[in-house]
Amino acid sequence: MDTKAKNDTKRITPPHFMLPVEDYRKLTAPESIALLGVTRRTGKGSNNPLEVLLEWGYRGRILPVNVAGGEILGYPVYTSLLDAPEVPDLAVICSPRNTVPEFFRQCAEKGVRIVIIVAQGFTDGDDDGVAMQEDFLKLAKEKGIRILGPNTLGVVNNFNSFCTSFIGFINPLAPVGVLCQSGIYVVGNAGLMGGTGLCIDPGNSADVEYAELIGHMARDPRLSVINIYMEGVTNGEKFMEAARDAVAHKPVITFKIGSSPAGAIAAGSHTGSMTGEDRVYDVAFRQCGIIRAETTDDVMDFNKTFQTFPGIGGNRIGVVSISGGAGIIAVDAFARYGLQVAELSEATRKAIADLSPDWFQVHNTIDVWPAAMKYGYPEVYRQTLSALLRDPGVDAVICVTGSFLESEKDFIDVSGIIHEAASEHPEKPIVGWTYGGRWQEYIAKLEKEKNVVAFSSLDRAVKSLAALYHYHHILQPRAEESLSAFYGKNPCLSLPAAGKDALELISHSPSGFMTQEDAFTLLESYGISGVRREKSENVDAAVAAAERLGYPVVLKISSPDITHKSDVGGIRLNIPDAEALRQACAEMLASVRENCPAARLTGFLVSEQISGGMEILLGCKRDSQFGPVIVFGTGGVFTEIYQDIALRIPPLDSDEILAMMDETKISRILKGYRNVPAVDIPGIVKVIMSFSDLVMNHPSIQEVDINPLLAQPDRLVVLDARILLG
Amino acid sequence: MDTKAKNDTKRITPPHFMLPVEDYRKLTAPESIALLGVTRRTGKGSNNPLEVLLEWGYRGRILPVNVAGGEILGYPVYTSLLDAPEVPDLAVICSPRNTVPEFFRQCAEKGVRIVIIVAQGFTDGDDDGVAMQEDFLKLAKEKGIRILGPNTLGVVNNFNSFCTSFIGFINPLAPVGVLCQSGIYVVGNAGLMGGTGLCIDPGNSADVEYAELIGHMARDPRLSVINIYMEGVTNGEKFMEAARDAVAHKPVITFKIGSSPAGAIAAGSHTGSMTGEDRVYDVAFRQCGIIRAETTDDVMDFNKTFQTFPGIGGNRIGVVSISGGAGIIAVDAFARYGLQVAELSEATRKAIADLSPDWFQVHNTIDVWPAAMKYGYPEVYRQTLSALLRDPGVDAVICVTGSFLESEKDFIDVSGIIHEAASEHPEKPIVGWTYGGRWQEYIAKLEKEKNVVAFSSLDRAVKSLAALYHYHHILQPRAEESLSAFYGKNPCLSLPAAGKDALELISHSPSGFMTQEDAFTLLESYGISGVRREKSENVDAAVAAAERLGYPVVLKISSPDITHKSDVGGIRLNIPDAEALRQACAEMLASVRENCPAARLTGFLVSEQISGGMEILLGCKRDSQFGPVIVFGTGGVFTEIYQDIALRIPPLDSDEILAMMDETKISRILKGYRNVPAVDIPGIVKVIMSFSDLVMNHPSIQEVDINPLLAQPDRLVVLDARILLG
């Protein structure tokens, strides 16, 4: 089933912005390469990329360039690329930053199409560096040159024995495609990922970016998994489209650094203050099906798991263990990672009971020790494992073994038994945990046949199995569905006719908060109803408005300068009659003038008092990488106390909106909870869809807080809204 | 400072229930040992404890007992212990369970004081096993015998070459004391803890339990850290007292299994349903200062960290790294685990800037690579590390190194430089992360001098450093303070005079929920005020009561059988006048009779309507191990939606109560938030103290929900309370 799914995805149309095939070929498997500014030093610590290239056994043509000319390692050196006898597929500028402009000029003049710039000190350095980067980007654009870097080790293609790094690191071959923005992953691959097949480091990503490369790795049959080491993306929308496409083909595991910005974020809205950068990346990853690694250990563990097992039938896991305690540890980990212990069939339980002492209680996780004392350890382990693998209710098995005996006394080595079982049941992953002083040796032993993976802790074993399940049963199917259905369409719906006038509001508003009245008008043009209300310039007008609306009413101060009205006495609820209203007006003016003496006051807003209903927050924040991010959750005065929110990056279909709502605690109440009646859920979905269109249609909207959106069984109404333009 | 603190703690009085010194000596370092039921088989897979004992080099006298007599491994075998020439310090019954009663009888008759029972199949087996365990416990009590086990590997004393395990595992010596209830930790110690000094396995803990043993390990100068592998404790109060005492001496790291009970807990109160067993263990551990390991990797990592570093000055951590990316990964991990990146002094920043290229920006985490390209890697690493260690604003340093070069080309090996720096600054821990294909080799290299620890991931490195900081600066000081001040006193305050009558309520109530009226009376006897209210048998009485209380009023149904009144229409708020009240009574009766036809109705409860204020939950659940557990948090209809609660096990002083309140989100509101005024916080603390006395004074109270406790700026009042007796 999994294999079939993979073949089907081959038909997926690649993103239109993917790097052209010929450019990608020149970058990753060039027939000729120029090394501009290559050092003349060789040997230990010389960091000579020519030496590395030769050691790797690169078989293309090499054109070294160094102003001093002469010869390096037997290769004639050109004093300028212009003297070289051919236009190389790829040029690598591998000298310090001050020499980069001249070498880049030579590349442009020679007609090179792909250039890697290795040096540091551009946007990662000082202002001079930033200016230099702008200059060569401008020239590149004019000449149609594509740049990888700067601040990069370039490309490592283990299939073609090709490597542009100036450090010749330990480099085992593995079916892993890697995109990374730091040398740490390139050179550390053996320890951090277990090896690589193809590794591309865009460094500062001044030009070529992840989104252009990942589709190629997704379609490369030599790679079974993609790793991304990310500092940040330049274009979130493109990245998400590319990642979704890749996830439909194979697992994408991302380790994102910078999850903890040092400073707090200053923001003008609840939405802004609750949606830090990392939270936006997190939801973007989840929406496109990327598996986010929390640590580098996760990357290593998930890689070997995906390399070893083509799929998994479900999340029901059997446990065979040398110890009863390990079974409980496993069940604890299942709960953490969304797996479940397999309910064993009657036949399996009987097979195990027959092996065991009379007093033994057969649990769903099997402790083989009591039976082993009777029938001998290896035989009991073999029969138990076999019974579990034959059980149709078991999708995978965790084998716990001991590695605590010295080799000459080791009567509990069951590696061979486990390998045999794995080869008989290739459809059911077997994952090992081994504990004891010889754990490292035993992990190697268990993994020798490449049909089992093993770990130093049960937590890591279970987490890896969970990633396998999650990818095959949730992430990949969802990515495929998204590509074929909703996300291929134009994301923005057409602006409703009534909205045409409202648009004027935005185009004529200066940056800053819209007045509340304008915000209501804009929302209503998208069919999102505001409370019945009237703007009044003075107290008499307010009283007249209240007569029309009907008491009780709500009174608010109207001012373009006050964002949190309730903090300054700018809101009064439940005003029963005209007398009370006049008094409230007077008190409000006094309070606001005292608290915000500089605020411009433009009168009062009088609105109907609505009682009952649940207070919802519906917000949006424009992220610099990913564009608008929709926020839904608990609203009202306690919004930031409970921080009960869920995020999504639009466009959104109704399933996605319902999933977003289900992530919040308040959704349990909205569906009807104890004596609180259910509200109009389909109505909320519709409002969120319209809201999503609104923020996508108007790029000048920076932040929106609709708070509260009051939800009643038969009515949805905006009581307050703030919209920040920029 | 840390050394001083440790010496002071030596004066702490040990818990009175600690195992007598002579019994502990006989258990862990016996001069003679009897092996009852020892097998005649020897060699690989024979599981012969006599053979293990000899291999370990035990130097005491050994008395093998086996009904067949003869000789094993050169030792004469007695057919009965009664034939042995001496009373051994320790007897180990190491045969299957059916033979245990007879051997135990022999021990009793011979006058043995300490017996280890190895066999499985007692409370861990079937009903027969449970009965057998009861029998030998009874005999033990009569004869004053102490039992370790059953279902245990016994004792492993690496200092005295003594081991009762029948499996002779790999066993490096380390200053680690271990208490464990499963063989998994005993035999796997090298892989799970890095080795042990002294290990005691109480197995099923039928008699000797953790609380009696831990104080000895705390006072053993050969041990620098204590590990506990826990399935559960038998007496929570004793365990907490013993653990607090131990934490004052040295770090106690606990790995608790069974965090995920398979089934949901059925409970009659919010408090009951939100406080699962694992959550109670968790708060117990935190209250006595135990470090809870989430995985076995944590145990291993924390052990080696505590063994290597006697202390740490604070939580400001410097980072020296071969890669800029690693610095960001470290800062992410600091945020996760409560550390912070050190702000470098001007002198340090200048020293680093002087080494680096002009364009280089000195951040708080130092990427040495750009400077290394100029001055040579090892020298730059040395100078940077030295500058950080001299900086008074740096408490510890994380060194990131690469292990990705083949040995003949390795110019980045700085292990020697790091060792030198560590020996010059023993007061500042240095923790390493090394990445690359040779990471295992490099960890060993970095740890060779035993003055540095290193890890396979930065996450693990930072988590371990955080445990070190947390123990020395928070857990140990708090444990010492607790022992010397509050917790030594009698926990229960005296019952207030007015409470004497209220006590009758409890002693005469059958099991089940108290009526609400009785619950109010009991609370008020402890000074916890209920809302002004009157019980009324019929509608006319209700109207009369309302006149006395003043409108508006609240009407509730009175019934011993209805626990969630609002679910069945049994509560009506804000009733403005007599007419509305009569109607509400009629509607309520109809609704309740429809929803709960079997409920006994005892009239109405009319009470004053109080508006405004915050709704708090104050609850208690009696845990079978730890006794009463106090719960504080968000109350009202959304209690279980937000599950915003904190737990504590009493007795509680006001600091502990404030700390509990601060763990909840609602506490931010209670202190005054935006336009919500602050409530009477000292009043709440007083209420919680009285509540704590109440539940400690009355063991028959099983669960309490005070929900809501309404908090206003000048008033605290219970609106509803349910008390379950049992």
TrEMBL record, chains A, B:
All copies of the CoA-binding domain together span: 27-122
Domain of life where this protein originates: Bacteria
* The UniProt record lists the keyword Signal: no
Presence of keyword Transmembrane:
no
**Family that this chain belongs to:** In the N-terminal section; belongs to the acetate CoA ligase alpha subunit family.
Q: A Gene Ontology MF term for this entry?
A: transferase activity
Cite the Gene3D superfamilies for this sequence: ATP-grasp fold, A domain (3.30.1490.20), ATP-grasp fold, B domain (3.30.470.20), NAD(P)-binding Rossmann-like Domain (3.40.50.720), Succinyl-CoA synthetase domains (3.40.50.261)
Pfam families in UniProt: ATP-grasp_5, CoA_binding_2, Succ_CoA_lig
Query: Any idea which UniProt keywords this protein has?
Result: ATP-binding, Ligase, Nucleotide-binding, Transferase
Name of the molecule in the record? Acetyltransferase
Coiled-coil residue spans: none
Organismal lineage: Bacteria, Pseudomonadati, Thermodesulfobacteriota, Syntrophia, Syntrophales
